[in-house]
Design a protein that fits this description.
The protein is of the alpha+beta class. The chain has helices at about 15-25, 45-60; strands at about 1-5, 30-35.
Length: about 60
């Protein structure tokens, strides 16, 4: 699971984020968490680049 968190989005504070992340780990989920400054209105290009990089890493090299 790839989880992006924009710190200033206001939907999920740090305490809730930590609780949910802990629950995912207890459930055995493999989670990559990335946090960025800002909110939904200023989604940086670096976020989109990270999504692309993460997706490409999920593709086994045998397919290439």
């Amino acid at each position: 699971v790839l989880w992006h968190h924009l710190r200033d989005a206001g939907r999920l504070d740090e305490d809730d984020l930590c609780r949910q992340l802990k629950q995912l780990h207890i459930a055995g989920m493999d989670v990559d968490l990335r946090q960025y400054p800002g909110d939904e209105t200023d989604l940086p290009a670096v976020v989109l680049a990270d999504v692309n990089r993460w997706i490409m890493q999920q593709i086994p090299s045998a397919i290439l």
